[in-house]
Amino acid sequence: MNRLEQVRELVDKVIESIAHPERKRYGFVHLYGVSATCVLLARTRGLDEEISAVAGMLHDLATYETGDSENHGPRSAIRAKQILSSTDVFSDEEIRIIQSAISTHSDKANIHGPYEELLKDADVLQHDLCNPSLNPYSEHEGRRRIRLRESLQ
Known about the structure:
8 helices, Hypothetical protein af1432
């Protein structure tokens, strides 16, 4: 089994254990959707597709696992490190890259590194693609959404 599938299997177990049906559905839809969008963006930006996909799979895991979205980026980054370390197939540098992207993905107002920006954009695109009639969650997400929509035309 490849590394991404190992991560998906572990994430699936977490999401499947959620008793709340709506939170469970959103967990699967959003995490898989962001992961796939990360791959697409990584291809256009010359970034590692697998590392990008893994970051997408793990970026909101703490929110779905606990039902609490407060400070979920840093909490999900900690959870990601636990999961990735348990697989024993990711290097310390790969885990650091993934954690950094996850930790900062909610900070849509500021610019960070390439993986951080990729995850922010994938998160915004997944929200937009999943339900384009919803308003952005924040002003900064709205600006990203407009920029991303324009870049796709």
